[in-house]
Design a protein that fits this description.
The chain is built from seven helices and no strands. It is mostly helical. It is a multi-pass membrane protein.
Length: about 170
Amino acid sequence: MNNLLSVNSVRFIVLVLIQVLIFNNINFLGYINPYPYILFIAFFPVKSNRAIIILLGFLLGIIIDMFLDSGGINAAACVFIAYARPLILKFSFGTMYEHHNIKFGAVDFGSKITYITLLVVLHHIILFSLEIFSLSKIILVIQKTLFSSIFTILLSIIITIIFSRKSK
């Protein structure tokens, strides 16, 4: 339990620092902004209490919001994906989720990509809808969601491959 707590604490701090120090400074063509900090929510232990992940999602989002001065939109997007996470897990992993025996390092690559893609796209739709908050600019919301999602998904997959533990 202590090891699990320390691993998740380090993951939380490292992802926040990387997001704040590196990825918040990337704004390519006004559409591409990577947000890999949501990997914390994605890879938080499945067996944990749902209220804890929602609370940690809020904390993660509000910390990012404080650095971006974005008024809570990251917190709202993180709380939404933390709340929707069980549905996305069930859709992506099926019976493995129902039995709560998902080991993210041991699942097949296609299921992992589906899971990350769904979380990222949902996060970005909420984030950019709240950021722009205008139906007349729906095309801009879709463009930012699409381009940032593609970049965030690719970056998240690369990070996952680099830092995954090989299970034999």
